[in-house]
């Protein structure tokens, strides 16, 4: 039996009476909060004043600070005069109580100098301890009487009418303890033949607490012993149906076993055991491990790792040595399955620890973690130590504990630890023993411990667990929906178990119905609860342990949508220096509420992020700080991306036309490091843009999209970039912001050109030009004109293309954007080349290169070399052309412009084939196919056509035919005019 609730006990001074001989004070908390002097009731004041008195009585004589008392009375939203109110309540109580009872100390208060038994809770604890001692000695009657006396001290609702979060928490805990005492008392009634009398009380209790299986089990036994077998079995049937409807689970193993024993009329159930009073119970080895779950799934590497560590203590492990005191500390986020795994491993290792297994839930994630001295007292009793031999102090109990374990082989499972300080006194000290520790924090300060970090399940393990609970038939019929469910659960075992249990209990639901419910992120945490199991409640325990600055960081960082976040970006969100931010983030990592994805990068589990956002909605004050945090993040990304754009394109004046920012940017002097940042942050940066849709941050968001255009031309994030640009376009249109709409459509046009969707690119570029003209946005208008020119080249409207390029160049010139002039001149060179003006094309390309050279090395130099090489190829100067292409290729590779790299390989292949070098042409065409090209499927068709021509020249007609057939399919799908030429090539091969 539990020796008491997990609340602090009131320390007794040992003074039997007041020094002046007057009647001693007495207090009650197991009902209304009351005080008496002898038989006279004392006025305890207002509800808040009684709440203050209760908080002090339950602190075992220790001082409660003013801040703690304010939190106990009012929680997160105290009144402005809370401190003054606390002082007033204390002053009034001091006048009512005896002198020296309520003392002021260190800015707080304490209740001291009370006589033994002065508090009803202390008396109940003493009676419960006496009952436990009597039961251990076999005195069941004495134990039952003591428990009845303890239960009689309750007088209605605990702390009745007392407000505040502290009182509410204690009400729950003390009610749970009362039920535990009641169950134990009823067990003793049944042990002594009082089954008929117990039926009535058990019937009422099971009605009041329908999901409490131990009460149901006792009722079944009482009914059976009363000759009412059919009713006993009916209780089981009711229980099974209720658990299935409410929780989606079956009755626990003990209840199922009792039903089977009743069905077969097991003689062992008929008569209670009635050992003689005073007969000592035979010594038993402790076997305290909770039952392992029958559907334990996966985790094979962790099971092996932990089993090997325990084997080292047993002497059965691999390698030399053995027989050591082994400690393994298992850390991970709430709900990841730490306890389930530890219990499973402990059961597997039981045979290696024949002297027993100890278990305790240390309540580390709760508001009141278990005290080590209390746990040691329980362990010593379980190991056969008499109460009278258990010392008082923590140090003496720890020493005796180690002595008792000396020479024994015992496994200790310390579940849900708060920190290493709580664990150290509970560790065995001798060879042959082992300890398994589970915690939400990594116990890096637990000397000699084998540390294990438990992550979420793999998709395969998650699906296997879901299937074991739901059933193979239902999952096999909707496998994709089942994968969606476990994905929505973030592969977190607790979430999967809850979701699967809900589905198993609802036969009319399909897996798709559950998947649809979980698809809504706003409702997902609400859906992931069944009975007293809830993912959100698990996270709440960890959140409740955070310091205020840590809690703020947790809330605000959860608002960002990206897959992860860098330290610098997090510092912008929190508006804190990087070092202080790192301290906060590492503290969150230690509590398993945040993961360290890589050095300097952090991420949330998907469900934890949803919970963090819920906390931000609930707790962040003022609410505007949520938007401000995301605004700082967007500013940081924009300022840094703009700096990188300027570094990569010296002389380009685009950055002068972007929205102003306030956040401090990262500064780079090395282009490689700058590109590293851009591509690493690509997904998070685009997520920040998408989060700004529909807010007052939209203008900065589209400018960030524009400054980060290299994400498209690299091919790394083209799809995400396009979806983001689409969303920004629509938001700007709905908002009537033509300037933002024009810029958004310019960025979207860029994506469409890269992916070869010319028809839609023309639509977007036309709208971009209109918006830019209306908003008098010179920067957007110039780039939109350039894009219209490129589209005209694709459509073979070369004169139109030339006019658009001339228009763009004029706009760049007026804006003083020399780099923009040079870049567009390369496109103008291609227009002249298409119109047959080869010499003019060469001249324009050379002039553009010379202009860029005066501005500094830039990625756009590659475009100049590329344009010049195309003109030189057409002029028949193949060697010069290849030199220019190679120069372009080097720049594109260094700047990670993958699609331009592939396109350049295609042009090199063209030059080689024109110079009658088909082997080299085929080689570069293959490289272009492997890397990818600007222009999407249409350009892939061009590469395949060229490859086919190279292969045909090498005598590989069949392979050439295959390339041309694939190219023809691509041209027909895209409506490209090149299809006719490929048909002619196929016809020529077929004719031959």
Automatic annotation (TrEMBL):
Protein name: Tetratricopeptide repeat protein
Entry keyword annotation includes Hydrolase: no
Matches recorded under Gene3D superfamilies: P-loop containing nucleotide triphosphate hydrolases (3.40.50.300), Tetratricopeptide repeat domain (1.25.40.10), Winged helix-like DNA-binding domain superfamily/Winged helix DNA-binding domain (1.10.10.10)
Annotated family: Belongs to the AfsR/DnrI/RedD regulatory family.
DNA-binding region residue numbers: 13-113
Keyword Transit peptide: no
Keywords: DNA-binding, Transcription, Transcription regulation, Two-component regulatory system
Region Disordered: start-end pairs: 1-23
Annotated OmpR/PhoB-type domain residues: 13-113
